[in-house]
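Researcher: Re-running this chain for the archive, since the previous output was lost when a drive failed. Same request as before.
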Amino acid sequence: MSVPTTHPFDFDPTYGMTLEQLLAIRPPPAPEGFAAFWEARYRKALAVDPMPSLSGSTASHPDWQVSDIVYTSTGSFQIGGWLLVPRTGIVRRALVVGHGYGGREQPDFDIPVEETAILFPCFRGLSRSARPPISESPAWHVLNDIDKPDDYIIAGCVEDLWLAVSALVRLFPETAGHIGYSGISFGGGIGALAIPFDERIDRGYLEVPTFGHRPLWLTLPTTGSAQAVQIYQRRHPGVLENLRLFDAATAAARISVPMLMAPALFDPAVAPPCQFAVANAPPKFNESFILDAGHFDYVGAAAQRALLREKIGKLFRAP
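Model: Regenerated structure tokens:
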């Protein structure tokens, strides 16, 4: 193991917890109305016509036909991103790939899949889906309508994921029933909230997911988006009550499809106890790959990434 022992932070990004202690963390219980809240939003999202529109892209790759894509999400929000289609072979699967809170500047071309159409959406307010007055800064984006559960931007981002699936089904109807989701950090938390309520998603990969175990998320020191909410909480102590509806670990306890989880033992941006609350939550079909660190360079990272890449390829292999 190569868990970092030196770092520039004024807190311990392992939070003093051993792997055994992390594996014992359970998700918080669901608040009253949790399932009804998300099921209603999902029904609303399903009723939206995504109207995907493709155009030529400045990005290019020898193995992939790259298109810019725009589709409609809830509230008529226009979501921009990229669509990759293999230049050879047929499309048998589809994959939605989320992004971290830094947004996305281009698609990833090294995802180990074949015969797969890959959609890289930019969640509302970020990168290609930026729209004033929503701030692209994670510290402000995460606070957008945080006091209004029905309007909270995190709910909108979950709906953007569901509409990405709808767009793929519209463009590639043959992939219905064979659509996966991959997300890291911010995208991992969004995925944990979205997957259990969308039966069209048949498997998922979540790496260092955020938004897990909100009671801990609001108390542990961090450099990530939770820090902004912790500052907000000092003036609005009731924020936890709203955030319980947006707990990625609580939602993940409802996941019933095959999952690969990659939580980290050391992470200054997303506290490992919150990551493991998500990773430990699904009741079955769950495999975990423990990273030594997240959001931080470390010795042995390349070797771990190579092993993880193999597992990701196996998870999303075309049927």
